[in-house]
From TrEMBL, chain A:
Gene3D superfamilies: Cysteine proteinases (3.90.70.10). GO terms for cellular component: cytosol; nucleus. Keywords: Hydrolase, Protease, Thiol protease, Ubl conjugation pathway. Its EC number is 3.4.19.12. Belongs to the peptidase C19 family. GO terms for molecular function: cysteine-type deubiquitinase activity. It is an enzyme of class 3 (hydrolase). One of its GO terms (biological process) is proteolysis. Residues 253-262 have a biased composition (Basic and acidic residues). PROSITE patterns: USP_1, USP_2, USP_3. This is Ubiquitin carboxyl-terminal hydrolase. Residues 33-517 form the USP domain. SUPFAM superfamilies: Cysteine proteinases.
From TrEMBL, chain B:
Residues 550-563 have a biased composition (Low complexity). InterPro entries: WD40/YVTN_repeat-like_dom_sf (IPR015943), WD40_repeat_dom_sf (IPR036322), WD40_rpt (IPR001680), WD_repeat_creC_regulators (IPR051362). This is WD repeat-containing protein 20. The keyword Lipid biosynthesis does not apply. Keywords: Repeat, WD repeat. Gene3D superfamilies: YVTN repeat-like/Quinoprotein amine dehydrogenase. The keyword Repeat applies. Residues 588-598 have a biased composition (Basic and acidic residues). The lineage of its organism: Eukaryota, Metazoa, Chordata, Tunicata, Ascidiacea. It comes from Phallusia mammillata. WD repeats lie at residues 280-312.
Length: 518, 705
């Protein structure tokens, strides 16, 4: 764990930083605090700093915290999530009186170790893995809360209505709106109040009204339900619309209406369809969505009044601000060389893990990432049309560019001969602004311009020995965060972090964060 | 992982094949790099300097000879090119220096003043100083900015002004450039510039030195020395966002300087009048290098987007981009020995392409009205500097009849030219010329340029009339088969599409450059596009002549009356742009000459809009106040899709003729000599690639795609 010994940034260092920046140039509402290293937690500190200076992310976290404190999300059991700890940490930083100093992210690290066993030791870890885990964790917490919120509202509405018709309506609503299964909390909650739970379409709601009767019983209930329309929750709006459907329009549960074309938000494929792409050891795309969004298929697309809102609500349920900020979509285009069928498959991503080569630029690495490859020999493609394994061409193109583009350079490769993971210290240059070349023709924002806002740098010779630091951009100034230490960096100094060819101990950019300019 | 269309070659090549034959790496003088170990920088990468080579042909009493100046680490070497290519002999260094404390970053040999007794070389350093050494007498003649009071950031490029004995230009990482007159003694006095800018340009500002000082403004440094300084003559602030300059190049005619910047902009500026002729933006990232074609019609740039761009001086737009490198393009250079193009009149007749001289005829009126101090910019005063452009230039550069790479009046010839080959070339291209509506008898055009990159690759490229003029009409998006990215392109000139979009975007630009708007945001760059619009949407090649001439009429009329009448409104602007006229009016309104000096308030050029925005502080005193340290990122959204920066599918995409890995570490320089190509490697050594002997190999008639 060389290099992980913490340095204490005392008053002197703070003063030095202030002087370096200049008291007048110091951005008024900004705080630059180093994070103490508890032995091996530089992997964590570096990612935290990079994310803290990712303004959209920081804003959302602080906003969440504010909402938390205003009791919007309910306060039971929410204080001990990783997200909550992150909120406290960020809030702690921004509410410091001093402008510089050091903080100890004790709670966060403790919670991290509790939640993810693999981090619960003093070994060196992979910053990228932490990045994935953190986003995953936040996303799930937010999803849970959304569910709980909807359930809570549903119950509210249920209890506030008195007429039977409404009850029926409620049931039907819950019938339609059931999506997540195996959700303990929800079930628990539902059983408490005796209402039908959010269950899959094939199970019937448990209330007295005959579930088979899908007719709308009472239009007059629309009046009372419309009062709920004032609520800003999308759930209630949908309620209203549904009730306004009128007679005879029986909403069908159309099982066939699949979610083709519907983006599967927050979903990272756990398997790569291109076997030739190597996996990075640590990142396993942990971000698997347990709750399948295919449940949205229950929504009737023949339901003309409701569908849009209902569907939105469905996809909303799976969508969090993590998706909004980091998620993009790429299309895998497979072309069978025998029957010439082209198949497109969309997948979402929160970051891109790119292979690297010596003396290249990140632009080139991204091109290679998207390059056309052949599936042949052992890796032949199972063509549905040909119903056999055929040779195919496959390429990947980005369909939707995210707001924050996180690029993970695959610097740790498994070396067969040495039987362990080694670090590739290739020199990979990255510019301060970036456009992507590997977008689909119909990508809406293909020419998006990105600005570099942060870099997580790995220093050292291997994945098990090394140190992480972060470089961030704050108010047009570049800063280097090395655990406790914070230094100002000249833009020309970025050259130090491209990686040095011969030097095993080189500092090399590992995760690049680009923010879109629009 | 099988990559289609590319061979995964990790081997370093020592030869490569091209249409005219095989280039082979030559052994070079054995004792070239005395230590014989690769140069490794001590310390972090950001403190290292790029290994640089500059080669100039001078007349210093020996036979006409190419001299090489080469810096690596702390050392500078000066030697004759001929001694480099004699492998069995010691390399004779004519001068050699080792520096302490600072490292040399760039250099330039003064061709004009070279003589038996003295050869001046300007050297720039990491700490911002510029030293002038005499390699004949081995003396250090002068050091500008010795105490760093003028500028603290490193010198990224230094060059002598064309045809100047004493004036040089130095560019810095801060985005500033300085014009120095080394004949003036250097003092330690702090230079004070006029508050009001000498020239307020589109994206840049020029300040002139205050030479007459009042007692209150006389600087007195610690020595109690009250002497004012005569240097630098001018301070050029090329960017407000602190974006540095990577390099600049003077045009072959000597009038213009093209400045390549970290913010992705290439600005082509007339360095005596300080007017900007045109501007270009990279697709993304900074521009690291630029090079003028031998006739001055095209500039090729290389940048951090791994691309090379070909920019047309006359049309002021990017006409082609090239993808071949796997990393940043460190240097680009035209190969003047492999450029074929007709003389000026044929160029105009067949292709409608004016020459630089046509666009900017020299007028004697200019000669007198120079810079503020009237004693620099000698090139303008120089009586031998005629206005016919290339022919004179060639002669002045002492190219001998056989070896001159290009000449007026006939198609450029290679030293061992083969007329048979030329005819073959023209036959093959006849059909393609027909297809784009050109006269089949029009003479062939072929420009060759080379690029080297941080990927340790060398690429050679070629552009011919198909590319140069087709891009206006038919718009093939790609010339390659492996990169079909955006297949569909609208018909009609992309340039015109670009122009149209220019109009559109321009119309959104607030006329007043509202007081809140940051200087560099939509206002300026958006405005600029109008003035670029030479052809105003014309796509027909044959019409280009007329359009060019008509706009020339307007432009040249302007330049003729350039700086004489400060109240002259630019009546001439691109007629199609009503909005442009608004800018023009705005400009002239702004252009109140507060100091009563008449000259150099470049009023009239239509592509010269003035910033009318105030910075955040507002107020009259800061009306021109630009020196806002805070970076204001320009609204680049507006530049994409315009002539400044066409979209990827709006220009032709080139593929290199040759793309080979030639070293293990990044290549930093490329120079074309008559008999070989020289590449400079960051490891600290040079490579020589001998040109093929045409008699030995039979020329193949393939045309590049």
């Amino acid at each position: 764990m060389k290099g992980c010994l913490p340095n204490i940034m005392g008053a002197n260092a703070s003063a030095a930083l202030m002087k370096e920046i200049g008291p007048e140039q110091f951005p008024p509402n900004e705080r630059y605090f180093g994070l103490h290293n508890f032995g091996n937690t530089c992997y964590c500190n570096s990612v935290l700093q990079a994310l803290f200076f990712c303004q959209p992310f920081r804003d959302r976290v602080l906003q969440y915290r504010t909402q938390q404190h205003n009791g919007k999300h309910g306060s039971n059991g929410k204080k001990d999530t990783l997200l909550a700890c992150l909120c406290e940490l960020f809030y702690n930083i921004v509410s410091q009186k001093k402008k510089c100093g050091v903080l100890q992210p004790k709670k966060f690290v403790a919670r991290l170790r509790k939640e993810y066993e693999s981090f619960d030791n003093y070994m060196q870890h992979d910053a990228h893995e932490l990045f994935n885990c953190l986003l995953n964790s936040i996303h799930l917490v937010l999803i849970e809360e959304k569910k709980a919120e909807r359930e809570r509202k549903r119950l509210e509405m249920q209890s506030s209505t008195t007429s039977q018709g409404n009850g029926v309506k409620r049931e039907r609503l819950s019938f339609f709106r059931s999506k997540k299964k195996e959700d303990k909390d929800i079930h628990t909650l539902s059983s408490k109040v005796g209402a039908s739970s959010f269950v899959p379409s094939d199970t019937m709601p448990s209330t007295s009204a005959a579930p088979d009767s899908l007719e709308i019983q009472n239009i007059t209930s629309a009046g009372s339900s419309s009062s709920l329309a004032t609520s800003d929750s999308p759930a209630s709006t949908a309620d209203t619309n549904e009730s306004l459907m009128g007679n005879g329009q029986v909403p069908k549960v159309d099982q066939e209406s699949s979610d083709e074309g519907k983006p599967q938000n927050g979903h990272l494929s756990t398997e790569e369809s291109t076997p030739s792409k190597t996996f990075s050891f640590f990142s396993r795309n942990k971000f698997s969505k347990k709750a399948s969004s295919s449940k949205s298929s229950e929504l009737s697309s023949s339901n003309s009044n409701v569908p849009h809102l209902e569907e939105e609500d469905e996809s909303e349920a799976n969508n969090t601000w993590i998706n909004d900020i980091f998620q993009g979509t790429y299309t895998t285009i497979t072309r069978c060389l025998t029957c010439e069928t082209v198949k497109n498959k969309d997948e979402d991503f929160l970051d891109l893990s790119v292979d690297i080569e010596q003396n290249t630029s990140i632009t080139h690495c991204l091109r290679v990432f998207s390059n056309q490859q052949m599936l042949s020999g052992e890796h032949k493609y199972s063509c549905e049309v040909c119903r056999s394994k055929q040779e195919a061409q496959i390429q990947m193109r980005i369909k939707k560019l995210p707001t924050i583009l996180a690029l993970h350079l695959k610097r740790f490769k498994y070396c067969d001969t040495l039987n362990k993971y080694t670090k590739l210290t290739y020199r990979v240059v990255f510019p301060f602004d970036l456009r992507l070349f590997n977008t689909t023709d119909d990508a809406s924002n293909a020419e998006r311009l990105y600005d570099l806002i942060g870099v997580v740098v790995h220093c050292g010779s291997g994945p098990y020995r090394g140190h992480y630091v972060s470089i961030v951009k704050s108010h047009d100034m570049w800063l280097l965060f090395d655990d406790d230490n914070v230094e100002k960096l000249e833009p020309s100094g970025m050259e130090d972090f491209y990686g040095v060819t011969a030097d095993k101990n080189s500092e090399s950019g590992y995760i690049l964060f680009y923010q879109s300019r629009e | 992982m099988a990559l289609e269309g590319a061979s995964k070659d990790n081997d370093v090549k020592v030869r490569f094949n091209i249409r005219e034959g095989i280039y082979k790496q030559m052994p070079i003088s054995e004792y070239f790099y005395p230590k014989r170990v690769p140069y490794v920088n001590q310390g972090p990468a950001s403190t290292s300097t790029t290994v640089k080579t500059s080669i100039t042909r001078i007349d210093d009493g020996d036979e006409d000879c190419d001299r090489v100046c080469f810096t690596v680490g702390r050392e500078l070497f000066y030697f004759g090119y001929k001694s480099l290519v004699q492998p069995s002999q010691h390399l004779e260094f004519l001068d050699k220096r080792t520096y302490k404390g600072v490292q040399p970053t760039c250099h330039h040999i003064n061709k004009f003043s070279a003589s038996n007794e003295t050869v001046k070389v300007a050297v720039g350093f990491t700490a911002g100083q510029v030293q002038v050494i005499d390699v004949k007498t081995k003396q250090s003649l002068q050091i500008m900015n010795e105490d760093r009071s003028v500028e603290k950031s490193r010198v990224t490029c230094v060059k002598w002004l064309p045809e100047s004995e004493n004036v040089l230009l130095s560019a810095h990482a801060s985005g500033n450039m300085y014009t120095y007159d080394v004949s003036q003694p250097s003092t330690n006095a702090l230079p004070i510039f006029h508050t009001q800018p000498h020239i307020l340009g589109e994206g840049y500002t020029i300040y002139a030195l205050k030479t007459k000082t009042t007692s209150s403004s006389t600087s007195s440094n610690g020595n109690g020395n009250n002497a004012t300084t005569k240097n630098p003559l001018f301070k050029w602030i090329m960017a407000t966002d602190g974006s540095g300059i990577h390099t600049f190049q003077f045009s072959p005619c000597g009038r213009f300087v093209a400045v390549a910047m970290q913010n992705g902009y290439l600005r082509v500026i007339n360095h005596s009048t300080f007017e900007m002729h045109g501007c270009m933006k990279s697709y993304f990232g900074g521009l690291l290098s630029c090079s003028w074609s031998p006739d001055g019609r095209y500039i090729v740039t290389g940048g951090e987007d791994d691309l090379v761009n070909v920019w047309s001086f006359c049309e002021k737009c990017v006409i082609a981009r090239g993808y071949g490198h796997r990393s940043w393009v460190s240097e680009v250079s035209f190969d003047p020995f492999c450029c074929f193009y007709p003389n000026d009149s044929d160029m105009k007749m067949f292709y409608g392409m004016p020459s630089v001289a046509d666009l900017y005829p020299k007028h004697k009126a200019l000669a007198g009205q120079d810079c503020a101090n009237n004693n620099s910019c000698e090139n303008v005063d120089n009586p031998t500097h005629s206005s016919t452009g290339m022919g004179d230039f060639v002669q002045r550069n002492n190219f001998s009849e056989d070896s001159r790479p290009h000449c007026n009046g006939e198609v450029g010839l290679m030293p061992h030219s083969n007329m048979r080959r030329l005819r073959t070339y023209s036959n093959v291209s006849k059909f393609s010329r027909l297809s784009i509506g050109l006269d089949p008898c029009s003479p062939p055009i072929c420009y060759r340029f080379g690029s080297v990159g941080q990927d340790a690759h060398l690429c050679l490229w070629e552009i011919d009339e198909n590319i140069l003029f087709n891009s206006r009409k038919n718009r093939p998006t790609v010339l390659t088969t492996t990169q079909k990215r955006r297949p569909s392109v609208g018909s009609g000139g992309d340039c015109s599409a670009a122009y149209n979009s220019t109009t559109d975007s321009g119309s959104e630009v607030p006329v007043n450059g509202s007081s809140n708007s940051e200087y560099s945001s939509n206002g300026s760059y958006g405005q600029y596009h109008y003035y670029n619009n030479i052809s105003g949407g014309n796509i027909d090649v044959s019409q280009l002549v007329t359009t060019a001439q008509s706009s020339n009429a307007s432009n040249s009329g302007t330049s003729a009356t350039l700086n004489l009448q400060k109240d002259k409104k630019h009546s001439r602007q691109n007629a199609s742009n009503g909005v442009a006229s608004k800018f023009a009016t705005l400009g002239s309104h702004e252009r109140k000459n507060k100091e009563g000096k008449e000259h150099k308030r470049n009023l009239s050029l239509p592509h010269f809009s003035f910033r009318s925005t105030s910075n955040q502080n507002g107020g009259a005193s800061t009306k021109y106040g630009i020196l806002n340290k805070k970076a204001q990122p320009p609204q680049l959204i507006k530049t994409l899709g315009t002539t400044l920066c066409p979209k990827l599918d709006e220009t032709t995409l080139l593929e290199p003729l040759v793309c080979k890995k030639i070293a293990q570490s990044r290549i930093t320089g490329i120079n074309f000599m008559e008999d070989c190509i020289i590449t400079t490697c960051q490891d600290g050594y040079l490579q020589l690639w001998k040109r093929p002997n045409p008699r030995a190999t039979s020329p193949s008639p393939d045309k590049p795609k």
